[in-house]
């Protein structure tokens, strides 16, 4: 099939922008710094980088191959490809797990993105002008402690996501990423510069992020680093597969994947380089958890001249980065509902959005009325959704995707999708997809259990 019924990207660049829009989001700016802070800094960052390049990149290529070869929702793509490869139809479970993981992630993603929207308005109204660390801490606690506020912002964000998703591939998704992603990038660079020149603790931040101490490696930190690699690249649940379905035949898959992974990694590292100098300059805890970005950045904006404006623009861009990620979390499910039930995109988007919104209330409550309700040991509803989806379902989905692509996918399809690749590169890629990526995930799983 040369075209998808859901529409097509107008060019290879649009695919890169959309996939980078999916990849770059709260995972880079909010989640990366806080999990790095909780898991020992440099050792974590190194593990994360190794996972990105040895496990993440090959799986991104594999997902894109499957998506473009199938041109449907991940569930039906897998059905189609197993048939064309004479493989067991049970591989469709990749699609089902993906819909489940996407739903779980979206449910809490919208809550956290809601906080960013709240901060956008706080910044604009000047709440944080002159803010110090006590003020920023209190502001974060009072926002997340206020059930109605949290649910309100959460609802607003979910509504925006659904609205854009409903409009479809071309009109909804492309427009959002084309201008906003480059702006986010430039603003981050400016912030790094600010941190380097004025925080007085830039070196300390860099040391925390990049100096590797062997005592910081632990089985669980390695699992979290791998989970973060999957999360930040949007891998393991079919989002990239769904986007790959709209990729024109002529575009190079390996070239696109490399660009996307590099962009994503740079944004995460830049965020860390902004946040940790502020942490150390203000005597904050690097292991502060999910509040880290929301406490550090307002201090920075509160102290710089023009901070009210920069802060507003920054949180606006974070919100947009989150929207371009959130729409990719629902795309597999939307495409499937449209194919299966022949409903409109809008109807599919609204139904999934309402369900995920409802499930998201559990996360909204995790920081206030349910903050002592533990689902897994020592894990709130939010922690549980985050842990199970990122550290278990996504890596497992990744193993299945790599294994299917490397061992069971019809070789002619594999070769056709990688038509542009020279012989030895293809061999290296095949080795990565067949052995390195799946075994890497399994090794990390085993390490985290012992
Ligand atoms: N990668 C996004 C981020 O870093 C989140 C995201 C979007 C995602 N789509 C995904 C994560 C699919 C896992 C799977 O914010």
In short:
With 450 residues, the chain is an all-alpha fold.
Give short descriptive properties of this protein.
Hydantoin permease; 450 residues; 18 helices; globular; 0% strand; binds tryptophan
Structure, described:
The chain has 18 helices and no strands. With 450 residues, the protein is mainly alpha-helical. The chain has a single domain, classed as Hydantoin permease. The mean pLDDT is 94. The site of tryptophan (TRP) has 16 residues, from helix 1, helix 2, helix 10 and helix 14.
CATH class: Mainly Alpha
What ligands can be seen in this structure? tryptophan
Helix and strand pattern: HHHHHHHHHHHHHHHHHH
The tally of helices reads: 18
Number of domains: 1
Q: Structural class of the helix and strand makeup?
A: mainly alpha
What is the third-level CATH name, the topology? Hydantoin permease
Q: What is the CA-CA span between the terminal residues?
A: 47 Å
Largest sheet: none
Number of strands: 0
Radius of gyration: 21 Å
Q: What would the average pLDDT be, to the nearest integer?
A: 94
Shape verdict: globular
| CATH architecture level-2 label | Orthogonal Bundle
Topology:
Blueprint (H helix, E strand, L loop, with lengths): L11 H12 L2 H13 L3 H29 L3 H11 L8 H32 L8 H13 L1 H21 L1 H30 L3 H9 L8 H14 L6 H6 L8 H29 L10 H12 L3 H35 L3 H22 L14 H28 L2 H7 L5 H27 L1
Helix pairs in contact: 1-8, 1-12, 1-14, 2-10, 2-12, 3-4, 3-9, 3-10, 3-12, 3-16, 3-18, 4-5, 5-7, 5-14, 5-15, 5-16, 6-13, 7-8, 7-14, 7-15, 8-12, 8-14, 9-12, 10-16, 10-18, 12-13, 13-14, 14-15, 15-16, 16-18
The structure holds tryptophan.
Tryptophan binds next to helix 1, helix 2, helix 10 and helix 14.
